[in-house]
């Protein structure tokens, strides 16, 4: 894999490059939103294309697995290609793929378009994270990096409600069509504000493999796998859970998921402040609280007030997952941030796909409470990986 090379001291970082940071941020937000958009549309898509809710969940599974595979592979395949052209090309692929989703006459065609979306997501996310050093002055690199990854975090908590509301107000095909239009807008923005971004400094398979010898990185990857798998096993089916288990009116699902998203944004800022002081303890608290919120749903979420309360708590806690785990990986491998981040991006996306798939199997084989038990247990298991490295000084 290749990573973008910092600019030389003679290169000028004009203040307008913050427009480029903003464009890349919007790109990451849009791509991760595209990954999770179908979660709020499962019932509508299933009815329109005559597939079960569990089968419709493959819209998330296929996209996420392809994204997870693409994250380390795309940079290798493109070699030293100008990263500006790469990002523009990937956004073009996103535009075309979502047109395909909007016009899909059947479920197999929809799945093919979702696979293309996954390729765009994995490649874009893996490259975008290393661009801050190319776009702003050294003193502003941490802030620019946080802004770029903020697009990922915001999409993780707002992508589903955006899709749900668009589907409720219009149609699920309109939701995919709108996503395609926005992707084209980002494409134009990237062409307009990104400077040429030549790539060098190869990061090969050996550097990636070496990260697994680092106990902090290893624990972070395991925790990411368990947390994200558990969350998406349950959250992929949050709409039918709220309607069928909690008795929430279907017309309220979109607004409630926006509430989930707003709670998640608040959780992102709260966790961001907390990890700066006590990283290890903060991650443990997040793991415990997220597991509790999911596991308590079949017990306390059987009424509308109980389900809504647990949903907001769930959103608040999950909002802190991305920022805390990203910080964990950076602190665990300060001399190999690029390699550790590539592994983290890959694992995060693979876990989304596995979680959605496992949840679909459980829902079709048993019932909705089963997917909540599975999700909560998986998140709780992440606590073992986090606890195992409590003595590592860098992660305290």
UniProtKB/TrEMBL annotation:
TM helices/strands, residue ranges: 58-78, 85-104, 116-137, 144-162, 174-198, 219-237, 257-276, 283-302, 308-330, 342-362, 368-389
Keywords: Cell membrane, Membrane, Transmembrane, Transmembrane helix
Membrane topology term: Multi-pass membrane protein
Classification via Pfam families: MFS_1 (PF07690)
Keyword Lyase: no
Localization of this protein: Cell membrane
Top-level lineage group: Bacteria
Domain Major facilitator superfamily (MFS) profile stretches: 20-394
Family matches, as InterPro entries: MFS (IPR011701), MFS_dom (IPR020846), MFS_Efflux_Transporters (IPR050189), MFS_trans_sf (IPR036259)
Listed Gene3D superfamilies: MFS general substrate transporter like domains (1.20.1250.20)
PROSITE patterns the UniProt entry points to: MFS
PANTHER family in alphabetical order: CHLORAMPHENICOL EFFLUX PUMP RV0191, PURINE EFFLUX PUMP PBUE
Protein's name in the database: MFS transporter
Source organism per UniProt: Nocardiopsis sediminis
